[in-house]
Design goal:
- This protein is an alpha+beta fold and 83 residues long.
- The chain is built from 4 helices and 3 strands, in the order αβαββαα.
- Strand 2 and strand 3 form a beta hairpin.
- Helix 1 packs parallel to helix 3.
- The chain is globular.
- It starts with a helix and ends with a helix.
């Protein structure tokens, strides 16, 4: 299990990557049940405010590593469309 400092660092990294795609990392404010065992994060679209990742079988179902992998697998940055 990563230390608190490693987790905070990874959260900041995922947030930076997410901004390029127009999404925000959302962390479960009070983890419980399944969220404590696996997960704790979701991605929310900044424009529509809809959840785009991390709510498959229950809310906050994605781990931080899964969110990072999801973002890195996306084909194109949002910033590229404007330029």
């Amino acid at each position: 299990m990563p230390s608190r400092f490693e987790t905070n660092s990874l959260e900041r990294r995922v947030n930076r990557i997410g901004r390029r795609y127009g999404v925000t990392l959302v962390k479960c404010p009070k983890p419980f049940g399944k969220v404590l065992e696996h997960g704790g994060y979701m991605l929310r679209d900044d424009d529509t405010r809809k959840i785009v990742f991390g709510n498959d079988s229950y809310e906050f179902s994605a781990t931080l590593e899964e969110v990072e992998e999801f973002l890195e697998a996306q084909p194109k940055y949002r910033d590229d469309e404007a330029g």
